[in-house]
Amino acid sequence: MNPAVLKRFIIYLAIATFAMFSVWTIREVWVDRPPGDYYVEEGGLRLQDKLYDQALEAFDNALREQPDHRGALMGRAIAFMQSDRPAEAEAEFTYLIKYLEANVQDDDRTGIGALAAAYGNRGILHDRMGRHEKALADYKRALRIDFSSVEGPGVVDRILYSVQPATIEKRAHYIQDQLKLPPEQRVLKNAEIDAKQRMHKP
Questions:
Q1: Where are the alpha helices (DSSP H) in the chain?
Q2: What are the pLDDT digits (tens) for 14-43?
Q3: Burial code of 106-138, b = ≥16 C-beta within 10 A, e = fewer?
């Protein structure tokens, strides 16, 4: 075979492969994505940057594309909570919990994880507001629904990033022990430890 022809064939094949891969990637990322997912991802990035109004706008866009998108509802609740709007956060978490309890099937692991996370996050909200009995009830419910979804970062994250947040399980045990004490002996708030408690997303 002529080497020039072979070289040209290889180049054309490489170009065709790259083109097909690009088409497949665009289709996977943009065309075949469930409605609302792009905006939920955008909202998550805005949450990380503490741009809460922009995060809410992105989550609202997701809900316009897909009403009751559980990622968008969770994102809105967290944005409200992090921007010190506890009443709106509680309403959003409660709506999400009721929606998931009515719609999640037993084989929907992501949905079950989202339900556990919603209970866990609402527990954190109650905790911050000083409603410790309600927080404990939500923590216990989250752990019963799906322990793995709310147990905290994995071993790799802990080693690489020294992430040691107060997990829901530890906090639930702590609150339970404190509530057994007389009211004047209870220590239910610690600003340094409480600040390390992280939100949970499905």
A1: 3-26, 37-48, 52-65, 70-82, 86-103, 109-128, 132-145, 155-161, 168-179, 191-194
A2: 676 766 665 555 555 445 678 889 999 999
A3: eeeeebbbbbbbbbbbbbbbbbbeeebebbbbb
Whether the CB-CB separation of 165 and 155 falls below 8 Å is answered with no
Q: Which two tokens stand for residue 138?
A: 């939500």
**Domain residue limits, the chain:** 33-194
Q: For domain 33-194, give the CATH superfamily.
A: Tetratricopeptide repeat domain (1.25.40.10)
Please state, in angstroms and rounded to a whole number, the distance separating the CA atoms of residues 133 and 117. Answer: 18
Enter the DSSP assignment of 84. Answer: T
| pLDDT tens track for 51-102 | 999 999 999 999 999 999 999 999 999 999 999 999 999 999 999 999 999 9
Cα three-residue angle 197-188-180, rounded to 5 degrees: 125
Lookup: tokens for 185: 């002996």
d(CA 90, CA 111): 19
Whole-angstrom distance, CA of residue 93 vs CA of residue 57: 18
Q: Tokens 């990622």 sit at which residue? A: 71
pTM here is 0.75
